[in-house]
Design brief:
Length: 322
């Protein structure tokens, strides 16, 4: 009888704790330094989600090792809903990039939902003779082995897009890795390198200002952003099935109670409809996902598909982070 009463009291206490969640600030871990695109998304999301969650949201930047340090920290955190992770495509590419990874993306987290997707663009130096996609294809064929393709470093969005771009074209280019998008863009605008594939968050202003040439977007459908609306998709240009976006998703440590993850997911869906959040994401060139894609099961399936997509691309290139 005492055991039954104890179990009943414990269950009631746990239920009460869940009902009162959250009782203290929630930390969103960003696995990159402050000021970058992922950090910006996290801070915009924190502003939008604190209302529906009725909680203070704290951003903690845990950079290093291509985002794997921050992800590992959340994987090992207490599964109580007070530490969550906002991560980008690195959640899917890390298993192939790192021979030794200290977390398992599909096993060590509760999936809370996707947040947004950021399209990418193929851009070139101002002095490149090609003025459109057809001319660029010809120029690339005429300059095989002499083309310099910039990226922001191993595992960066521009690196991943560049790998798939080369494989889709069945052409090899000389890749030039930089320590970040800033120096890569500077050298592209200065004509030291020829091409780069990078996020609209990093390229739209340069395209609109005529500082680089733009040739195509990496999404299946054309974009509506004024500076990018006339650009063809790579898919319609002959690279069938080419689809690269840099997406962000929200995760909790494995074992976080369903009642808690359900509350976070419900608040996320409210935040994704917040006009201010949507506008801020559009200003970054990002597209906020629908309710269906903010669903936990759909989120996990999407990441699994992305792991299967990028694993062979990275392994074929033989480029590893360790």
């Amino acid at each position: 009888m005492k055991k039954f009463l104890f179990a009943t009291v414990a269950l009631a206490a746990a239920s009460a704790a869940l009902a009162e969640y959250p009782e203290k600030p929630i930390t969103i871990v960003v696995p990159f330094s402050a000021g970058g695109p992922t950090d910006k998304v996290a801070r915009d999301l924190a502003e939008a989600i604190r209302g529906p969650l009725k909680a203070t949201i704290v951003i903690e930047n845990v950079g290093g090792a291509g985002g794997t340090l921050g992800a590992a920290k959340v994987a090992k955190a207490a599964p109580d809903g007070y530490t969550v992770l906002l991560h980008h495509i690195g959640m899917a590419t890390s298993p192939a990039l790192y021979r030794s990874l200290n977390f398992k993306p599909l096993e060590d987290f509760e999936y809370l939902g996707l947040v947004n997707e950021v399209p990418m663009t193929i851009i070139g130096k101002p002095g490149l003779p090609a003025n459109n996609w057809a001319e660029l294809q010809k120029w690339l064929k005429d300059n095989q082995g002499k083309t310099f393709l910039a990226n922001a470093g191993l595992g960066a969005a521009s690196h991943l897009c560049g790998l798939l771009f080369q494989q889709s074209l069945k052409m090899e280019m000389t890749t030039v890795p930089y320590k970040g998008t800033g120096p890569a863009m500077t050298d592209l605008m200065g004509g030291q390198v020829d091409l780069m594939c990078d996020q609209t968050t990093n390229t739209t202003a340069q395209i609109a200002g005529g500082k680089v040439k733009a040739y195509a977007v990496t999404t299946p459908k054309r974009l509506t952003t004024p500076a990018l609306a006339k650009l063809p998709t790579l898919d319609e240009s002959g690279l069938k099935g080419f689809n690269v976006t840099i997406w962000h998703g929200l995760y909790a440590p494995k074992g976080t109670p369903k009642a808690v993850t359900d509350k976070i997911n419900a608040a996320l869906k409210v935040a994704l409809k917040d006009p201010g959040f949507v506008k801020r994401q559009e200003d970054l060139g990002a597209v906020v996902v629908s309710d269906a894609r903010a669903n936990a099961a759909e989120h996990k399936k999407f990441v699994s598909d992305e792991i299967n997509k990028w694993g062979p691309v990275i392994k074929a290139a033989g480029q590893y982070a360790d």
